[in-house]
Amino acid sequence: MRPRRMFLIGMLFGVMLAAAFTYVFALPANSDYWRMEIYKRGGAEWTMDRSGHIGWQWMVDPIPDTAPPKRAVAPPTVIKVRSERL
Question: Is residue 72 helix, strand or coil?
């Protein structure tokens, strides 16, 4: 009886943790408040098609997670120095 109760308590805790994570992170990310902030800063725009459906379109490309490759620097050319003979 005790192992079954521990299993059910663990499952309940997992479900509550998943619900809390969804409430804190997923739901605010889908709200129009953040979309309006991005719209005000010029990053995206609201669109409407011919049938009246409202959509969302980014105006700028997102910043990539990886840094752009650095340019290769060529070594300086060898300078020949002329010296006088005595």
Answer: coil
- In whole angstroms, what is the distance from residue 42 CA to residue 8 CA? 49
pTM above 0.90, yes or no: no
Q: List C-alpha distances in Å: 11 to 5, 8, 18, 28.
A: 10, 5, 11, 26
Query: Alpha-carbon Rg of the chain, whole angstroms?
Result: 30
CB within 8 Å of 56: residues ≥ 6 apart:
35, 44, 45, 46, 47
Cα angle: 74, vertex 80, 85; to 5 degrees: 165
With a CB cutoff of 8 Å and minimum separation 6, the contacts of 57 are: 44, 45, 46, 47
60 SS3 class: coil
38-52 per-position pLDDT tens digit:
777 777 888 888 888
What whole-number distance in Å separates Cα of residue 37 and Cα of residue 40? 5
